[in-house]
Amino acid sequence: MSITQSDVAYTAVATAENGRDGRVATNDGQLDVVVNPPKELGGSGAGTNPEQLFAAGYSACFQGALSVAARNENVDVTGSTVTAEVGIGKNDEGFGIIVKITASIPTVDAAVAKDLVEKAHQICPYSKATRGNISVELNVA
Q1: Which Pfam families match (predicted)?
Q2: DSSP assignment, residue 44?
């Protein structure tokens, strides 16, 4: 399900210079980082890389979705964390990414945590955007 331009509540704007070996900054000045490929991809590893930025955004978004799912179920997830691991590698079309999401929810038992993570995966905009495009593995710590 897509949204229309009139449904947009917020738009983030970032500009990259020199691709994976340069700089990326947001138009509001909140983010301005040097980007370099990781050593594993032949880069210097001196800056951050797009996979780290994607992992940061996905983990934050998923944590928000987890909170929504928990509120909907009247479950307390205080102290929970979400870790996103983003891998990049060669595939038939050049390169692709995979994601592993691990949620730690110390206030609930494993079955409830698993249910909340599955529900969060249905709510999270990053999960919706990647569904059917990349492999996303869900885990509970």
Answers
A1: OsmC (PF02566)
A2: -
Boundaries of every domain in the chain:
1-48, 49-140
What value, to the nearest 5°, has the Cα angle with vertex 71 and ends 66 and 77?
55
Eight-state DSSP code of residue 17: E
1-48: CATH class: mainly beta
> From the centroid of its chain, how far is CA 56?
6
What is the predicted pLDDT for the residue at 1?
64
Rounded alpha-carbon distances, angstroms, from residue 30 to 37, 51, 65, 78, 120: 22, 19, 23, 27, 27
Specify the CATH architecture of the domain 49-140: 2-Layer Sandwich (3.30)
CA 77, CA 102: separation in Å to the nearest integer?
A: 14
Q: Could you give the C-alpha distances from 89 to 25, 37, 118, 134, in angstroms and in order?
A: 25, 13, 26, 12
> Residues 6 or more apart from 122 whose CB is under 8 A from it?
none
Residues of the chain with pLDDT under 70: 1
| Contact yes or no for 70/124 (Cβ under 8 A) | no
What are the residue ranges of helices labelled H in the chain? 50-72, 110-123, 125-130
